[in-house]
């Protein structure tokens, strides 16, 4: 059993406590120091007591928060591939015993028996130190990525979604006549970190890509859009931009009304990737015409969650590529750094925030 300083909540009741905690569920003999942990809506939802699916590790009265992390190897234990000082990203989902979990695809767990670090039944990474095993650690190939490799976890979700998009788009010829995606249009709903990571990825594939919200956005966001060749549209005043149709819509808002507004803009063979979750969003109505639209146009709507270890590796490659561009604004996706003791990170969100990160070293 180890004792470490960290931030815990009592799931699903909520609240947050900074202090010393005894950890009983770490598995593996690699000792790690946490450098950074990202804060996302799930952490805030858990602290607010809104996420009824969250639960403490078995027999424990609290759970250490945090699933987006960057760690440093203090002691590689029995690892043959990691050395002291290496940077690593821990995998969030830990497998159960279903057929998907047994092949390393706990992101597609078929019976719900997997655990998620910092969310469901396994302590997370918002703490000074943790132990893990090689199987669940992904080495950061490039030490210069220290300042932004904490974005690996949110980026790996996008890499998996691209895999799913690749499979689904094969139901017809989706690419342009020259085999690229030139001229194809992608719209990403939302202007948070995941929306940017999706939009940057689809733009890299050759899509003409827009990111959209129901209000204007700050200069930092506009500059990132400009650099990565993304258009920003405030759809509350300009829906006309989308009148020519969209080939791929990615939703990060979880808002059904907005989702169906953009669904109605999908071109033939169009694909809608649902990623955002918002159990508190207002309901919307869907008509027979909407169903006809889906059938007549061969539309696909799909949900995608989490990702596998391979997607963490792909995410690190992608982040390295973006981070090494000349004058890259990638680090500007991280808009605020917090001390672990500052619990306001869970309760306040500045409108200019894209990604908030807690610094542990
Ligand atoms: P986020 O920062 O909260 O981003 C959500 C974005 O949606 C914000 O920019 C928000 O804008 C925007 N939005 C909300 N309602 C909208 C509407 N009606 N029209 C347009 N935009 C709207 O969260 P994130 O970290 O980027 O993550 C995105 C979503 O994915 C969250 O719901 C998160 O819970 C979910 N998620 C899913 C997975 C998965 O595996 N599927 C994994 C991680 C996260 P405002 O801030 O202006 O409201």
Description of the structure:
By secondary structure, the protein is of the alpha/beta class. Helix 3 packs across helix 4 (193-204) and helix 3 crosses helix 8. The mean pLDDT is 97. Helix content is 23%, strand content 28%. The protein has two domains: 2-153 and 307-359, Quinone Oxidoreductase, Chain A, domain 1, CATH 3.90.180.10; 173-297, NAD(P)-binding Rossmann-like Domain (Rossmann fold, 3-Layer(aba) Sandwich), CATH 3.40.50.720. The chain contains eight helices and 19 strands. Strand 15 (246-251), helix 6 (256-263) and strand 16 form a beta-alpha-beta unit. The strands form four sheets. Strands 3, 5, 6, 10, 11, 18 and 19 form a seven-stranded mixed sheet that branches. Strands 14-13-12-15-16-17 form a six-stranded parallel sheet, with helices on both faces. The structure holds NADP nicotinamide-adenine-dinucleotide phosphate. Residues 40-42, 157, 189-195, 213-214, 252-255, 258, 275-278, 304-306 line the site of NADP nicotinamide-adenine-dinucleotide phosphate.
Question: What are the segments in which pLDDT stays under 50 over at least 5 consecutive residues?
Answer: none
Task: Please state the oligomeric state of the protein chains shown.
Answer: single chain
Strand content: 25-35%
Reported for the largest beta sheet, the result is: 7 strands, mixed
Category from helices, strands and their pairing: alpha/beta
| Count of helical stretches | 8
Helix content: 10-25%
In the residues, how many domains can be counted?
2
CATH topology description of the largest domain: Quinone Oxidoreductase, Chain A, domain 1
- Shape by Cα distribution: globular
Q: What is the string of SSEs from the N terminus onward?
A: EEEHEEEEHEEEEHEHEHEEHEHEHEE
Bound molecules: NADP nicotinamide-adenine-dinucleotide phosphate
The CATH homologous superfamily of the largest domain is named Medium-chain alcohol dehydrogenases, catalytic domain
Q: CA-to-CA gap between the ends? A: 22 Å
Compute the average pLDDT.
97
Radius of gyration: 21 Å
The count of strands amounts to 19
Given this structure, which CATH class of the largest domain is correct?
Alpha Beta
